[in-house]
What we know:
The complex is a heterodimer of chains A (325) and B (563). Chain A is mainly alpha-helical. Chain A is 75% helix and 0% strand. Chain A is built from 14 helices and no strands. The model of chain A has no long low-confidence stretch (mean pLDDT 82). Chain B is α+β, with helices and mostly antiparallel strands and 563 residues long. In chain B, 32% of the residues lie in helices and 22% in strands. In chain B, strands 1, 8, 9, 10, 11, 12, 13, 14, 15, 16, 17 and 18 form a 12-stranded mixed beta sheet that branches. Chain B has a 4-stranded antiparallel beta sheet with strand order 4-5-7-6. A two-stranded antiparallel sheet of chain B has the order 2-3. Chain B is globular, with a radius of gyration of 27 Å. Residues 1-31 and 544-563 of chain B have low confidence and may be disordered. The interface between A and B is medium-sized, with 31 and 36 residues.
Amino acid sequence: MLTMLSFSLSFLFPGDNIINLSGQLNASSSELTQLNHYYQHDNNIIEQYLAYLRHVLQGDLGLSMASQSPISHEIIKLLPATMELSLVALLIAMAIGIPLGFIAAIKHNKTTDNVILAVSMLGYSIPVFWLGLLAILFFSIGLGWLPSAGRISLLFEIEFVTGFQFIDILLSDSPYKWQALNNALAHIILPACVIAVAPTTIFVRLSRAAMIEVLATSYIRAAKSKGLSFSQIIFRHATRNALIKIIRHVGLQFANLITIAMVTEVIFSWPGIGRWLIESIYQRDYTAIQSGLLVLSCFIFIVHILTDFIYAALNPLARGNKYGS
Amino acid sequence: MVVLLMKTKSTPCFFFGLIITLLSGCSDSDKISLDERSIIYCSEGSPETFNPQLITSGTTIDATSHQLYDRLIAYHGEDNTISPALAKSWHMTRDGKKITFYLRKDVTFHQTDNFTPTRLLNADDVIFSFNRILETTHPYHYVSGGNYPFFQSVEFNSLVESIEKINDHTVRFNLRRSDSSFLANLATDFAVILSAEYGQQLSKLNKPHEIDTLPIGTGPFKLKEYRVGSLIRYYRHEGYWQGKAQIEQLVYDITPSKTSRLTKLLARECDVSSYPIAHQKIRDRKDLQLESMTALNIGYFGFNTKKPPFDNKLVRQAVSLAINRQALIDTVYSSEATLAKSILPESSWAFNEAIPSPEYDLAKAKALLDLAGYPDGFDMDIWAMPVQRSYNPNAVTMAKLIQADLKKLNVNVNITSYEWATFLRRLAMSEHQTFLLGWSADHPDPDNFFTPILSCSATNTGNNRTFWCNAAYDELIQKALQTTNVTKRKAYYKEAMLIVNEEMPLLPIAHSRRYQARGANIIGEILPHFGGINFYSVNKNIPLKTINGKVKATKSLPVEQSN
């Protein structure tokens, strides 16, 4: 489905579809014939699509029109940066959002609940680019606490191994390892927090709803009537069951998170795939746009499947359903 | 340690570990941090090449010339006198046609990942570097295109007959004629010395183009890493002949956006920023400094002296008198430029205080226009250059202001502008009446202002867009070139400037300034009096802790100068 969309984009973008697919701007006529052969350009559309699919499965996404380097190489360099940023943002969102939601549910319909809901509504309504600029203005320029651009200070030379900055720093043998780690941490805080704002508010509402639902169930009532203490009920029974319901939504939130991350990457000059994709749009780099979209959607797709697996692993009820009826 | 733990532990631990590590901050107090031994410079663009011989663009010169290379001789001090560099002394015969350079014997080339020098600098390197420009048969002449724009513009090929090796450390330049600007040309940012040994090695490996992309020079820094559009990383050259630089690492953070440069400067992510905006904001911050340097350039309003009514001297004088130049400087340059008295900037040694500045006098202008036979005014065109240059940041606005000024003389002005290349081509074809343009000097010799802009020979090449050709003026600037006596040259140039002021082929407007911002803790001179920037003498005090733009702790630790 995705590959079909991406394939059809090459026809919808202006220019020759072979050039859009391959990204070879200055191909000579002999190279063009070869390209036509590779992509089965002379055959019918189905075969062309199958040829394209074969290329994609082999990891050949064409050349970037802007830099004329293979897109797969560029993506391998950039994707980890985005994953790292989104992951940290997701963790921040969960670490703040879920407990807040639980508190709101426990204090259901009281002032605490209303305050938390109001604040989360506010957080949800703030546009991310505005928040990002504000954060830079306040924390970077005004207070001078945190850096405003990039993943790490350019002074540190960290060799590219996995692409995940923190892992690469720990793997490197630089004498300035710990300074580099400190620096990388300082760099990720602002963008991650900005990205985390919207998902946090969603987690607040999700966990609040889940908790309210759980607290109304008969087994909680049974636990109460057995005389268990409040903390025992919450920590041993309610939290676990509410968390399972939330995990199902983490995957869904991830797609949302990536969208926010793309905008944030531009604001914070974060060298990730979102910034690269937006720059490709500016530069009319069609090959990069279609391949970038394909990779990004696949990535989100995989995350969805993974969270479903985790959900199934944690929740015996979901596993049971498969074999039932 | 906190960080290691958090990598292995579960989610909440990661987050809290993150905060703890951040709060603990940089606490390695035993050793000076990397940050304190390095400088980050936010530059405005990527260099086109790493060899200054091949270009004239300021961005490339700033990135390469003084960082990677040295010249035989260098400019020194405020008045740009020529002083020894790689050549410890030199001698010129009385006729000025033979110049002998005696080289230093202790100069080492960079050692990098792909080159290890086996010998010190000698005459072969000098001959290699200059013959690359002069001889079309030189194996490296056509590598990287075979264009040497600066040397072509000063007619280096026709000037230099040959370069002789007298012995290992003595080189003689044989000239076809004497030229008092020759030494000045050799001291420019472009006349760098490359390594002949590196050239031979690359020829053997059949990778000649690497001579300009993975450069080897004798300068205070060597190239470590270059990522196009992202950064240039220099390490210091440990064996630099003037003593190694004080900083260990120099990073050019390539940031083309003006606002991004400002943000990075304000957030102190760069130590030094090129061409900053928001000057007042920078001046207001105690932890930042704004420096400026009058650049050797001139922005002017030229008249096509071959086209009526501007073939009439009186019209040119009248129009010049009617233009309020101070208003142009206040508006177009935001008062950040010096009002020009003549085509030569006041910082040049040949400038003469006695030259009167063109005046602003409407009544006199009207009288002159009546005298010239245009009491009811006339229609004219102004061609405004379409690009932004430091000598004229906004020519179209300037043209509009001039339009308003000339309205008072009943002169109607049409403003025209073409795409830059077309603009220059059509100017050279003399299609214009008047034009707004400027000139940035290649070297500080005063001749670089007189010959290229207004000489008769420049009329033929289309460089003199006023098409003004004055025999007396030409004779004066020729005489000034043939002598090396500074007092005599000064006198000739004074005469020449008086002729220009009287004949008014162009109205000089402004000499702009070059700006640079840096942290208050960065010491040492970066902006030179002339040419590209130089980080050799720069050092850093400990970073200032700033809160709300106020300096909180300003203790100054002694900075380690050598290992």
